[in-house]
Specification:
Helix content is 12%, strand content 31%. The chain is mainly beta. The strands form six sheets. A five-stranded mixed sheet has the order 9-12-6-13-14. Strands 16-17-18-20-19 form a five-stranded mixed β-barrel. Bound molecules: zinc ion.
Length: 302
């Protein structure tokens, strides 16, 4: 069996140089290119979304190897001294030698500790802008809490946290996919790509909250008032009768979820419960779900 490769896209930016370490320019002006969309003209100008060193694609041409195996990105051996969570075939938790290094990772945006997702829309703060049709509100600070993210067993570090929303994750999903997150109730920092679960793989209730991605296949209003529920159904496993999210019509329309977004994807944090003969995520909190901007759908780990 082919070794698993977790580099689902590379940053492409002509003229960018890893040695200058100007990551902000790369992620601001670069384009996320999945291996199957790679073209020869990108050679020498594609970079790892985890460690930002140059990558090469194999095979160099065409979307498949001669044996039909799909194309993939690879690190260069010459950059093996640069640590990267995408070099190992399995997702590993990020650990730190010192509390200072962990706090630094938060400051420079490599790690986000989510204390909780917002339970309601912030008041009076206003909408700070929209990306791909989703409203966005700035995260606010949560409490400083202890997390066992030390390299040494039994040691915890005090880390600043955020009260965030899934919309924040969706907003620059291309940048966030290979960042590390500690989600509510979790002890470890894992890459977002490793936390994302395809809802089509779920076949039974699950009381551990997870971050799911799901394709909307239909949506139905359960009444005339805005405060009635809307059932939004997702593509699901063949053994599951149906799988829906239940939230008010008003809240879902605020998030852009209605009949016009069938076939679009949402990200949703929650527990899976039974609903009739199917499954559901029942009444997620305001900050626990958002429509994924359409341009990022091709980056989902499907
Ligand atoms: Zn890398």
């Amino acid at each position: 069996m082919a070794q698993q490769n977790r580099i689902s896209y590379a940053w492409w930016l002509n003229g960018w140089d890893f040695e200058a370490r100007d990551v902000a320019t790369l992620t601001e002006n670069g384009e996320a290119i999945p291996p199957e969309d790679y073209a020869l003209e990108m050679k020498g100008s594609i970079f790892c979304p985890g460690c930002f060193t140059p990558l090469f694609r194999s095979p160099a041409e065409g979307a498949h190897f001669a044996n039909r195996r799909v194309a993939r990105y690879n690190h260069y051996a010459s950059f093996a001294h640069i640590e990267c969570g995408l070099r190992s075939p399995k997702a590993e938790a990020l650990k730190f030698a010192t509390e200072e290094l962990a706090q630094q990772a938060i400051e420079n945006g490599k790690l986000t500790v989510v204390h909780e997702f917002r339970s309601a829309a912030p008041e009076a703060e206003g909408n700070l802008g929209a990306a791909g049709g989703i409203a966005f509100h700035e995260d606010v600070d949560g409490p400083v809490s202890a997390y066992p993210v030390s390299r040494y067993k039994g040691e915890s570090f005090a880390l600043p946290t955020k009260i965030s929303s899934v919309a924040s994750i969706c907003r620059r999903f291309d940048r966030n996919l290979f960042k590390y997150y500690v989600f509510p109730g979790r002890a470890n920092a894992l890459m977002l790509s490793a936390e994302l679960t395809d809802i089509r793989t779920v076949v039974q209730p699950d009381e551990t909250p997870r971050l799911y991605f799901a394709e909307i296949v239909r949506t139905e209003k359960m009444g005339k008032s805005d405060q009635n529920l809307r059932m939004t159904y997702f593509a699901c496993h063949a053994n599951v009768h149906d799988f829906c999210m239940k939230a008010t019509i008003a809240e879902q329309s605020e998030k852009g979820i209605d009949e016009n977004v069938v076939r679009r994807f949402i990200l949703i944090w929650g527990v899976v419960t039974e609903s009739g003969i199917g499954l559901c995520i029942n009444r997620p909190k305001w900050g626990e779900y958002a429509l994924l901007p359409a341009q990022y759908e091709r980056l989902l780990p499907r």
